[in-house]
User: Which sequence fits this backbone?
């Protein structure tokens, strides 16, 4: 696929607190006879010795089932691919379902969706039980791609057709999907006028207003419950609301902030502190005691932690400097610490968590967006600044682990010729020109040709600032690549647009941005008119650091909890990192527009 449209991308990225979810589904297969419980090797032997293709395929299918049960997914997939799903037998349909399940277990959601698409062509797919199996596997695939709007709709449909004993697990995952929705995605889904869906969206919005007191949130939910007694969420409330009822009792009574208030990071620290204090003073009483420790006035993190522990904090926010964060790896942490930075390589350590504006969260989001649009190939272009090269390497690493074929990775010096040569090399223009010249030499006559760029590239991941992007986009257009979108992280959005900026130079660029930056009427008491976009992001980070400090218990008690914050939808992963899911935006007629509001073709047409 060359052009990324928005047909599959019904919206993007997350939400507030969530719920424990079920594991990925492996199709269940009844073992009612001794033969069906035969070992893997015996089943393979029986399949290979059979002269009947249909019987052999059945043995291979059962051997693949055994391999899946033993966790040998690669072997299972190969057996299915070579001996079951490539044939037209009575086992092909079940083989396709198992192949989809194995693909989901291997985090290859696109492959799973392809197998399910083939399975749906069989008449047997229309049987209610098989329809449910396909829908369940499709839900898991969409969740693997983080296409939360589509996954939410699929789970909602399943809730109406599953057997009673399976509804609860599906409903828990449905709630988790709803909590992952961004505000833009919720607005989109509300247009469906589905009363059941809108009920889920409404109670999610209650939790999104986390500046409200827990008592008000619980009262809102109780009132909704009384007005909608037959809604599934009213009958079986999400666990989030049960945890919320005790959150005030478990809220921190004392918080320590560890920040460098002097030195090179002082401006960043003060922006974070401004955001934290803004959220703190907008929180209803009673509030936790705050204890601020300047990490630039102590000789080590051991001393800083010792000073913090004198105040018996329930939770510690900070440090900010990577050097200080590295020191934490060698210290015993008595209380939970949410560091405001991340190291490139960080081992799991009890009580140490991470929350930052790290670009890796945004890169994953961009990859998922492109995959949902059918894109499979990418290239990287970056400036040669150190931060840009590091971000390009992060994309390369994450692309490789997410089934993205990286065609090339290039960087350029900030000079016109270097930019032009890099784009020509990226688009294989030079090779095309050389082939034409060779033909003319060989044939001893002029050759007429129509110039075009390479056709195997779906999108370009660009790392640079806005002024850099304004030079790259016109070059791509000049070399016949106007239909290749640029994807970039929020670092591209580093300044306000000049009135002299040409719209075509900045359009067709998709990038991440924090919800707080995109609000039409941000709170003037926090964001000042002279604040740079970067300072606004740091203030938003401070706001969410306060949110995490006060709602830390939710993440401890609710598996896969989600929370809506100023920096995006917050979640805690297995590496004890608080990830954020931002919004995806693009410029349209000189203004930032959410990607979901962009019509198909507008991202690829100059």
Assistant:
């Amino acid at each position: 696929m060359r052009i990324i449209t928005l047909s599959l991308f019904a919206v993007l990225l997350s939400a507030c607190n969530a719920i424990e979810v079920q594991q990925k589904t492996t199709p269940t297969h009844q073992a009612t006879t001794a033969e069906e419980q035969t070992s893997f090797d015996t089943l393979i032997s029986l399949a290979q010795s059979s002269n009947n293709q249909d019987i052999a395929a059945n043995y291979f299918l059962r051997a693949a089932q055994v391999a899946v049960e033993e966790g040998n997914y690669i072997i299972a997939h190969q057996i299915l691919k070579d001996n079951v799903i490539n044939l037209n037998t009575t086992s092909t349909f079940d083989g396709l379902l198992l192949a989809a399940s194995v693909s989901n277990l291997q985090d290859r959601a696109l492959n799973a969706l392809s197998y399910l698409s083939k399975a749906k062509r069989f008449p047997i797919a229309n049987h209610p039980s098989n329809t449910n199996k396909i829908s369940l596997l499709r839900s898991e695939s969409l969740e693997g791609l983080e296409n939360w709007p589509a996954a939410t709709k699929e789970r909602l449909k399943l809730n109406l057709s599953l057997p009673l004993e399976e509804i609860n697990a599906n409903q828990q995952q449905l709630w988790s999907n709803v909590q992952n929705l961004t505000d833009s995605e919720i607005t989109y889904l509300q247009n469906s006028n589905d009363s059941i869906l809108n009920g889920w969206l409404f109670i999610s919005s209650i939790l999104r207003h986390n500046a409200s007191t827990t008592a008000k949130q619980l009262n809102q939910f109780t009132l909704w419950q009384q007005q909608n007694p037959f809604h599934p969420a009213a009958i079986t409330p999400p666990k989030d609301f049960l945890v919320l009822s005790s959150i005030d009792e478990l809220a921190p009574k004392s918080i320590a902030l560890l920040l460098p208030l002097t030195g090179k990071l002082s401006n960043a620290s003060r922006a974070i502190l401004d955001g934290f204090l803004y959220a703190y003073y907008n929180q209803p009483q009673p509030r936790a005691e705050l204890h601020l420790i300047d990490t630039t006035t102590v000789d080590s993190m051991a001393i800083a932690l010792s000073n913090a522990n004198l105040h018996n904090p329930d939770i510690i926010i900070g440090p900010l400097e990577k050097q200080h964060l590295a020191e934490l790896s060698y210290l015993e942490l008595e209380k939970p610490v949410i560091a405001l930075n991340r190291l490139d390589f960080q081992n799991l350590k009890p009580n140490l968590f991470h929350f930052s504006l790290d670009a890796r969260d945004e890169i994953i989001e961009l990859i998922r967006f492109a995959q949902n649009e059918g894109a499979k190939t990418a290239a990287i272009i970056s400036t040669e600044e150190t931060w840009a090269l590091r971000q390009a390497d992060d994309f390369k690493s994450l692309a490789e682990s997410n089934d993205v074929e990286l065609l090339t990775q290039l960087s350029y010096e900030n000079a016109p010729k270097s930019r032009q040569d890099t784009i020509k090399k990226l688009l294989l223009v030079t090779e095309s020109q050389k082939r034409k010249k060779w033909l003319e030499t060989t044939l001893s006559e002029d050759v007429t040709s129509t110039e075009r760029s390479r056709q195997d590239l779906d999108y370009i991941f660009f790392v640079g600032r806005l002024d850099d992007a304004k030079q790259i986009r016109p070059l791509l257009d000049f070399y016949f690549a106007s239909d290749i979108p640029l994807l970039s992280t929020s670092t591209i959005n580093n300044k306000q647009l000049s009135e002299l900026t040409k719209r075509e130079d900045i359009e067709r660029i998709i990038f991440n941005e924090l919800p707080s930056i995109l609000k039409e009427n941000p709170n003037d008491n926090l964001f000042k008119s002279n604040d740079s976009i970067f300072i606004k992001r740091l203030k938003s980070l401070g706001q969410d650091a306060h949110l995490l400090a006060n709602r830390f218990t939710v993440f401890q008690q609710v598996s896969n909890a989600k929370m809506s914050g100023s920096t995006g939808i917050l979640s805690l992963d297995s590496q004890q990192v608080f990830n954020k899911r931002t919004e995806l935006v693009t410029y349209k007629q000189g203004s930032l527009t959410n990607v979901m509001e962009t019509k198909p073709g507008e991202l690829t047409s100059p």
